[in-house]
Amino acid sequence: MARKHAIDDKDRDSFARAIEGVRPLDGRDEYAKPARKPPARPKKNIPNPERKDDDHPMPALGAQRDPSRDRKGLSLSMAPTEKSLFFQCPGVQDKRMQRLKAGRIPYEDQVNLRYKPLDDAKQSLERFIEDSSALGKRCVLVIHGKGHGSDGGRSIIKENIGKWLKRSHNVMAYCSAQPGDGDTGALYVLLGKSGAAR
Q1: Which residues of 147-165 are buried (b: 16+ CB within 10 A; e: fewer)?
Q2: Hey, how many other C-beta atoms are within 10 angstroms of the C-beta on 174?
Q3: Can you list the domains of the chain with their CATH numbers?
Q4: Span 1-26, average pLDDT
């Protein structure tokens, strides 16, 4: 325990000279405790009905929020959802289709049609499908792109590829690829046996 320091007469006289002429403030005869801290704000944002804020009006409690607007009511740019493509010939088992969609049937070859003119893309696809089927390949990857680099952000090839593939007698099924293989910018294509491979 710390010992109190004894004040000698010399220290007492020095202190008295130092505070000579000092008076307490009016109304403060004794030490006053500092005021308590104000209570913490509530954590929930409770709407104040007296608040006048024309720029960002508060929605009524329980009102549904418009998904195209942020919390302050400002407009958000909503990206369009990218459409998945799917086709299944009669006779293709659903279980096999599930494996194709999940990317569990390994593709044996691929063709990239991005940035090609429409007619060139169609011819390249037809030739690729015929050659792959003749070589006995069962699953291939066709990359058509999402159209992000095109005028208007549309993939003209993607808009046409479904009808091109359905016309081929070698195509049994197709579906959009998994994200690691191109997502909605590519297709897994399941091929049947061609006459040459049978």
Answers
A1: beeeeeeebbbbeebeebb
A2: 24
A3: 86-191 (3.30.1370.110)
A4: 77
Q: How confident is the model at residue 21 (pLDDT cuts 50, 70, 90)?
A: confident
Say which DSSP state 33 is in.
P
Edge-first strand listing for the sheet containing 86-88? 86-88, 171-176, 186-191, 139-143, 109-112
**Directed axis angle between helix 118-134 and helix 156-167, to 10°?**
40
Amino acid at 29: D
Bridge-based pairing of strands 171-176 and 109-112 is unpaired
Residue type at position 35: A
Range list of β-strands (E), 6-148: 86-88, 109-112, 139-143
Distance CA(40)–CA(47), nearest Å, equals: 17
In the beta sheet, which residues pair with residue 12? Answer: none
Residue 181 CB neighbours (<10 A): 16
Cβ-contact 123, 168 below 8 angstroms: no
* Residue 72 pLDDT level (bands cut at 50, 70, 90): very low
Cα 88 from chain centre? 30
